[in-house]
Amino acid sequence: xxxxxxxxxxxxxxxxxxxxxxxxxxxxxxxxxxxxxxxxxxxxxxxxxxxxxxxxxxxxxxxxxxxxxxxxxxxxxxxxxxxxxxxxxxxxxxxxxxxxxxxxxxxxxx
Amino acid sequence: xxxxxxxxxxxxxxxxxxxxxxxxxxxxxxxxxxxxxxxxxxxxxxxxxxxxxxxxxxxxxxxxxxxxxxxxxxxxxxxxxxxxxxxxxxxxxxxxxxxxxxxxxxxxxxxxxxxx
Lengths: 110, 116
Hints:
The complex is a heterodimer.
Chain A: E1 5-7, E2 10-14, E3 19-24, E4 31-37, E5 43-50, E6 55-58, E7 61-66, E8 71-76, E9 85-92, E10 98-100, E11 104-109
Parallel strand pairs in A: 2-11
Antiparallel strand pairs in A: 1-3, 3-8, 4-5, 4-9, 6-7, 7-8, 9-10, 9-11
Chain B: E1 5-7, E2 10-13, E3 19-24, E4 31-37, E5 44-50, E6 53-56, E7 65-68, E8 75-79, E9 88-95, H1 99-102, E10 106-107, E11 111-115
Parallel strand pairs in B: 2-11
Antiparallel strand pairs in B: 1-3, 3-8, 4-5, 4-9, 5-6, 7-8, 9-10, 9-11
């Protein structure tokens, strides 16, 4: 079973625009991570936010976490064609097992 | 190698056949994971190794699936009597410690299994 659910399932934006996607989860977590997957490739870690953090930045990425609502958001600013990929949130309910959502597919149009 | 290596990258087999998928993790990573990803879905946990032992195999769907990591490095996922429903991409990931502590899992490119 998958712990997280991303919303929307798919997103199409123009290059230069911002892309926002959300993740909701069910149980208490230690941390929440976001991964990117290009078509036919493996997953690449983007950013981790711990349960006691509310916001984190990494380059053009901004992640927020609201543990009271059991939700997180990933914002990609000034999107580029190379940002076209699927994005997954992953939560750990114990120390070792990550549970992934179904992902948001982002298409950035040139 | 620099990253997690998985072989074969593609495997086509017939229903009822036996399949082995191999994962070579990043050198020194003690934790190794197998996930299965169906089309349009996120990865689903199968099994987790810490060193040589399977610390959690609760995600294996049934007893046709088995995985080993005899020397604490390379792991093999074995699927007996394959069924069409086993068709998916099998992803391997490793990490230097516990995912909850160190954060990141390093994924291979996956082995795409197609059962005809």
